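User: Hi! I'm working on a homework problem where we have to compare a predicted structure to a textbook description. Could you give me the structure for the chain below?
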Amino acid sequence: MKKVDILIRPGREEDLRALLDGFGVPGITVSHVLGYGEQRGRKEMYRGTELESRLLSKVRFEIVLKDEQVEPLVEMLVKNLSTGNIGDGKIFISDIASVIKIRTGDKEI
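Assistant: Happy to help. Predicted structure tokens:
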């Protein structure tokens, strides 16, 4: 099993959710997070004063999938979410050793 973390800019949540639903992802966890990548934040003007925001708002989707589902999902996401601009997001893939349902104690390996 693999855990897939998808970080995207705010405003793309419904697009991503629709893609994941269409792919048949059984469940998601969504978090609003702060961070920066290549763009290193951004500068804005407020009442004539330049302000630098180092941490940008991002949305993180976490899903767990079978190994064979990961590559087709990644290909679909890159194809449908890429604008070609810095800040489109990142996909992180990690191994999952096991999953245990708290209610029943059932284990998935």
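For your comparison, note the following. The chain is about 25% helix and 40% strand. Strands lie at 2-8, 29-35, 42-46, 49-53, 56-65, 90-95, 99-100, 107-108. Good luck with the assignment!
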